[in-house]
Amino acid sequence: MHRIRWDDLQYVHAVADQGSLSAASRVLGVNHATVLRRIALLEAASEVKLFDRRNDGYRLRPEGRALLASLKLMDHASARIRRSLTSTSKGIEGTFRLATTDAIACLLLPGYLAALREVHPNINIEIAVSNDPIDLSLSGAEILIRPGTELPPELSGAKAGSVEFRAFGASGYLERNRDLTISEHKWLGVAPDFAKSTVGEWQLSSVGTRFEFSADSFLMLAALAAQGLGLALLPAFVGQKTDQLVPFGTIGGEPETGIWVATHKDFRQQRNIEALLGFFTSALAADTKQLNVIT
């Protein structure tokens, strides 16, 4: 009989997130049959039907959401055990896990990692990417680089700088719609799950909440804006680094947020972790002076 294991979480989460077995199998790097078998075994072991099979894909049932939440708690406990074991390690060699958002991972991190390799050639970094603050905190990573107004209580770290947000659009879109008022423009918004974020609250007060397209990723919003589908409020560095996008101009009241380098409190005072915290904090602090320059 199949026993529920902590790594079952990745199969449930992948199918729930991707909406199909084939898409989940690509994300997980396994074949379609493996995902189907693991989900079927988990449903049999838990005696819970996790998904509704529809023509348009798989949809997580309420019972499935409850089990997914329980599995995440188990995974969190496992991460705490791993952190405790890691805390006894010495030296600066080894493999470390870093969690951050997709925009930071794709647009900022590669340059930092190239510099890190020169300073610490025997360190290996595993990169976990998520735009969900809760997922970042539960990732089991030793180093977290995340935006936000403050750190949650289980984390300890430093604010490396601030990131400003600005509206960007494709030059063709702006030319076609140069006479529109702010409210008349088509806006690309953050997904409903991020309604209480800094950008979500700005959207609510400034442009409303009805969007033809929304996403939980600033890289995705930037790509949509680059296709001329509307304006997007983006971190300035995302808009600046996206081809075809130009600044819309100052609207007024655009938000900014902090960017933090942190670790779990379990890891503090370890020489290797402190070295990594210091490196990434310094790199971001130097970079943020340029991140918010609009040209």
UniProtKB/TrEMBL annotation:
<keyword id="KW-0805">Transcription regulation</keyword>
<keyword id="KW-0804">Transcription</keyword>
<dbReference type="Pfam" id="PF03466">
    <property type="entry name" value="LysR_substrate"/>
</dbReference>
<dbReference type="InterPro" id="IPR058163">
    <property type="entry name" value="LysR-type_TF_proteobact-type"/>
</dbReference>
<dbReference type="InterPro" id="IPR036390">
    <property type="entry name" value="WH_DNA-bd_sf"/>
</dbReference>
<comment type="similarity">
    <text>Belongs to the LysR transcriptional regulatory family.</text>
</comment>
<dbReference type="GO" id="GO:0006351">
    <property type="term" value="P:DNA-templated transcription"/>
</dbReference>
<feature type="domain" description="HTH lysR-type">
    <location>
        <begin position="4"/>
        <end position="61"/>
    </location>
</feature>
<keyword id="KW-0238">DNA-binding</keyword>
<protein>
    <submittedName>
        <fullName>HTH-type transcriptional regulator GltC</fullName>
    </submittedName>
</protein>
<dbReference type="GO" id="GO:0003700">
    <property type="term" value="F:DNA-binding transcription factor activity"/>
</dbReference>
<dbReference type="GO" id="GO:0043565">
    <property type="term" value="F:sequence-specific DNA binding"/>
</dbReference>
<dbReference type="Pfam" id="PF00126">
    <property type="entry name" value="HTH_1"/>
</dbReference>
<dbReference type="InterPro" id="IPR005119">
    <property type="entry name" value="LysR_subst-bd"/>
</dbReference>
<dbReference type="InterPro" id="IPR000847">
    <property type="entry name" value="LysR_HTH_N"/>
</dbReference>
<dbReference type="InterPro" id="IPR036388">
    <property type="entry name" value="WH-like_DNA-bd_sf"/>
</dbReference>
